[in-house]
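Sequence dictates fold. Next comes a concrete instance:
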Amino acid sequence: MNPASLKLLIAGVAVALILAISATWKIQDWRYGGRLAEQAGLHQSDLDKISSAATAQAQVEQSKRLALEQQLSASEQTHYKELSNAQRDQDRLRDRLATADVRLSVLLAEDPASCNAVPATAGAGGVVHGRARAQLDPAHAQRIIAVTDAGDRGLIALRACQAYAKEVSRR
């Protein structure tokens, strides 16, 4: 072989080698790109699933919160109704005490050693049977009603707080 044809042969082999390397490189790039695209698709699919699960969880939590708010609103309305009914009853009782329509009385303690226990006298409204009673001064009766009113309000508020605590602890 002459040197020119040898050079031509080497050049041809070199070109073929470069073409083979280039083709191999392109094929590897194509395969790697395909794998990357597949992984990106799987990753996007996972992200979509995570996103939909998070959205579903948020909707469940929001519906729970809404249900709790509705129950608490109903409980608050019940509490308000109980308070207003108690206030109305206390106001009626105060009015009746003020107009002397009703009198508060207390049982008198009887001393067993005393032998002059006198039965209660008959009042204008009827005969009182049983132990002796003493009527309270209207001002004292008003104070007693005020104390019982505060107690009623406290009990109503306590029941409302207990109902709230039970409802919240169930969640």
Q: What stands out?
A: The first strand starts at residue 105 and ends at 107. Residues 3-98 form the longest helix (96 residues).
